[in-house]
Amino acid sequence: MPAATRQALAEHARSEAPNEACGLIVLRDGVAERYVAGRNAAASPYRFELDVDPETWFLEDEGLELAVFHSHLSSPPRPSRTDVVNVGLWAGRPYLIYTVRTDQLAAWQIDRGQIEELPLT
């Protein structure tokens, strides 16, 4: 995770508090190229509903991969029960969580109720 990308998502998360922030991380060959800030349509501190510019979804047509990102205010950067239940189209894909209080970032893969940590470098 390049420092500039991590900084962008951390700043977004802090600016959205007390609600969860959300967005997309654009990956090329598994390396984060940039962060695309989204809007939490749920405007909630407990869950998120990602809203981004529709053009962002077409980046996958260009060979890029999209990873979902959201923040937790103080709970650890681990998927909550709500995250697991609402994983939706992100099942089996990179799922990053940032904790505002501790400045921790972690990556996960959630599939069929199973949670697996992914390495972040």
Q: What's the arrangement of secondary structure elements?
A:
Blueprint lengths: L2 H14 L5 E7 L2 E7 L1 E2 L9 E2 L13 E8 L8 H5 L8 E6 L4 E8 L2 E5 L3
Parallel strand pairs: 5-6
Antiparallel strand pairs: 1-2, 1-5, 3-4, 6-7, 7-8
What report would you give on this structure?
The chain has 121 residues and is of the alpha+beta class. It has a single domain, classed as Cytidine Deaminase, domain 2. It is 16% helix and 37% strand. It has 2 helices and 8 strands, in the order αβββββαβββ. The protein has a 6-stranded mixed β-sheet, covered by helices on one side. Strands 3-4 form a two-stranded antiparallel sheet. The chain is globular. The N and C termini lie close together (6 Å).
In short:
The chain is α+β, with helices and mostly antiparallel strands. It contains two helices and eight strands.
Helix amount, in percent? Answer: 10-25%
Number of self-contained structural domains: 1
Arrangement of strands in the largest sheet: 2-1-5-6-7-8
- Helices, by number, come to 2
